[in-house]
Amino acid sequence: MTKRVLIVSNSFDLHADLVTPYLNDYHAEPFRIDLDCFPRDYQIVQLFWHGKLISNITHLPSGQCLNLDEVGAIWLRKPADYAFISNDLAPQELAYAKLETEHALFGLLYPLDCYWMSHPIQLRGAMWKAEQLHRATKFGFNVPRSLVTNCAQQVRVFKQQVPGEIIFKPLSSSSLAADAVAESERIAEGIPTTIIDDAMMNNLEAVNELPCHFQEYVDKQYELRVTVIAGETFAAKIHSQDDVRTAVDSRDISANIIYEATQLPADIAQRCREFVSSYGLNFSALDLIVTPQDEYVFLENNPNGQFLYVEQLIPEFQLVKAVAATLAAEAQCRS
Q1: Distance between CA 259 and CA 257 in Å, rounded?
Q2: CA-wise closest residue to 216 among 235, 195, 238
Q3: 219-303 classified as CATH 3.30.470.20
Q4: Model pTM greater than 0.85?
Q5: Shortest CA distance to 322 belongs to which of 310, 333, 301?
Q6: What is the pLDDT of residues 82-111, one digit of tens each?
Q7: Could you tell me where in the chain the CATH 3.40.50 domains are found?
Q8: Which of 146, 172, 249, 320 could, after both became Cys, cross-link 192 (CB 3.0–4.6 A)?
């Protein structure tokens, strides 16, 4: 039986859009679940009958049907709020509908003996920033001095003990969870990595409200975005210090800074691969700093990080094709 690739994402995911043609070229016959249309536009059946499990899913608008026995690889991309036929569910009805849908969906997928990029259990286990720092030290990475606390006084002590500047960076959402609420309810669109100045130090009481993440500021020669796909590393050198807008946080897209392919030292590349593999992940994107003294410093791991922007800036990487080739090949290994 020819195995197929199942993509679980949302209808706004350009990454999935671009990977799909390659999967078709590899005869992987992709089937896509867009969670922002699920279960409204899908019909699922999971039947236990005389010790046998029969599972299938149909995309109602297209009529495309997938027998879950045909799945050889799953690409778990980006989440989204579920959609239901009724738009006027009461709050408790909606809460219950979401819980039941999640149980039904992952109860459908978890029994599958297939290749995952990556499994939701591994993804969740790899997302905690403080745990990442602890694990990174075990793999020999240099890690910035860091503090997570909801005690303003601890931040003052930390600032006194760190020889240079300190920064604030969110643990969970750089958008400050703006994407989790309606646009009319947003009070801010996000916050970049921010150097804590004297004015901020004089207004630290907000830290007592909830845990916050602080780190020492590490001087940079340049930054690295290291994408690991099935054990292969793609290292992008980011010239973040060429523009004041990206000197502290390289994600400011208004700055036209250079991204270029670079070769990691063998030990650093191996360290990145082993770090990602330790979570059981088949994909991840690591952010590193290279200091003026040529030291490599670990910042964070993004277990389901974006990679299309890297390929757009460094076309030779062909990351989209690499993802598709991996998924197709791994699916066929299970034929």
Answers
A1: 7
A2: 195
A3: yes
A4: yes
A5: 310
A6: 999 999 999 999 999 999 999 999 999 999
A7: 4-118+324-333
A8: 249
